[in-house]
Design a protein that fits this description.
Helices cover 68% and strands 0% of the residues. The protein is mainly α. The relative contact order is 0.15. The N terminus is likely disordered.
């Protein structure tokens, strides 16, 4: 008998799947990914100022996909002490 998965686990799996799907459309090299991250932040800022919730969510998802891809296809550890972690790389850029 399989155990039921918690809501958190299901949500996390959906987030990972969404990031993987979006990441497949992104470039593979670091400089290009960092440029996408910067573009997503700028577009997110504009969407928020314009009150466009749908566009803001799309840009936040795109940024997350970049972080996920920079971090080797996972969110776990993307904000660790490692300066090469995906979240740290994108923030530093």
């Amino acid at each position: 008998m399989a155990c039921k998965r918690s809501t958190l686990e299901v949500g996390w799996s959906q987030r990972e799947l969404q990031a993987a799907t979006l990441a497949a459309t992104l470039p593979d090299d670091r400089p290009a990914l960092l440029a996408v991250a910067a573009g997503a932040v700028a577009a997110l800022h504009g969407a928020i100022l314009a009150g466009d919730e749908s566009a803001a969510r799309a840009e936040a998802d795109r940024y997350d996909a970049v972080v996920w891809k920079l971090n080797g296809g996972r969110f776990s550890g993307c904000r660790s002490l490692d300066p090469e972690a995906g979240g740290n790389l994108s923030e530093a850029h």
